[in-house]
Amino acid sequence: MLSRSTDKASRRFYGWRGSSLSFRLTAWYTGAAFFLIVVATGILYVALSANLDRNTDLFLSDKVHVVAALLRDRPDDWSGLREEVELESAARRYENFYIRLLDQRGTARLATPGMDSELPPARFSVSLGRPFPLRSQNRRAFRALVERVEVGSVPTATWTMQVAVDLTQEDDLLARYRAWLWSILAIALVSCPLIGYQIARHGIHFVRDVTETARRIGSTTLNERIQPEGYPDELADLARTFNGMLDRLEEAFGRLSRFSADIAHELRTPVNNIRGEAEVALARARSVEEYREVVGSCLEEAVRLSELIGSLLFLARTENPATHIKRERVDLPELLNGVRDYYEGSAAENGISFSVNCTESSTTNADRALLQRAVANLVSNAIANTPAGGSIALSAHADPVQVRIEVADTGVGISAQDLPNVLDRFYRVDPARSQASGGTGLGLAIVKGIMNLHGGRVEIASTLGEGTSAVLVIPNQATR
Fold first, then answer.
1. CA 285, CA 197: separation in Å to the nearest integer?
2. What is the DSSP letter of 196?
3. pLDDT tens-digit map of 293-311
4. What range does the domain containing 380 cover?
5. No. of H helices and E strands in the chain?
6. Pairing mode of beta strands 391-398, 97-102
7. Are residues 146 and 167 in the same domain?
8. In a domain, 253, yes or no
């Protein structure tokens, strides 16, 4: 039973959640507006009824005060009493009232004509000094008051005065007022949804603009943007956020397109070389040595192709936010000296001197293999771009905040035009030289990817003809 009721509540909830925004806004506006109208009309009706009762109670008190004053000050003035009790009520056309004076024995001494048949003495409550509702013989509504009054300035007797006011006119007024209120509520019940729907439609047409713009956007129309001018603040923020997302998508799509073209270009060269070698070898009969030479050449191209694919796969891994690295304590002097030992022979062949400057206590927590690969790529790049007689200096500095590893050379340098792009994939400052040395244009891109995995960055400064300085900046986690 409980499961069935839960399912019903769930269906109602999801049915409401799946409704349109226009329907929701209209429903909320209708409910809120109609509730406020009901509360306002109810308060006005209660206030009117209370005011009428208060005015009636004041009128009753005034009548009691006037008659009591006559009995106290002029007890023998029966003409004045008769005029007040019997004649004044007949003179009032729209609000009749009745007064009855009873002596100590309960005998009626004076009464307004018709009161005995309309309101016999027995119908009055015995409670004194407090107005109360009363119904006549023919069910007409009255408001009545019973008071004790003293006769004479020196009281000789105490009489009972019964006063009642006919509420027929007030009831008619309240009935007409209720009719007007019901009419207003009926009109509100019909008009609130219509007005609310128009307000909702007007309010969400900005959302429809955003939807139409989003519907037009495709792979060939990523330049479409939402114009937030004139939008409400909340939707203007949404539009600007949406435009920012489109900017990032357009940039990523363009980068992906360029990357795809670069991959196709880079893969085409070794594949064409392998194909050309194979076609030449198959054109006629060859000797064993010639076939061996062709196979060796194809193997070189296959190795180059394998290295390119491996670099691309590594770059893809570095750009995956879910990729985790194996951090360990890395001794920076040991790492830099190891890189120097590996490349020292190659540098010596090219007439380049090597130096390492690093304090013995410099350490950090990082992935040793990846950090070594990043430094090695920078050194390899420096050797390729430093002429004979130049120098390469490796240095590292660690503080509580960050670790800085610098590879500085006195090579040919990089122009200011090329400097912002050197970390991009397949970007070559000198394509001819890079291809001649077997470079793929991915070395610095891999360095950037390794720094991204470590939460760091690469800073490159260069002056054309004077040299280049590449700095790896890593947040220091040695003490964490």
1. 86
2. H
3. 888 888 887 887 777 777 7
4. 328-475
5. 13, 12
6. unpaired
7. yes
8. yes
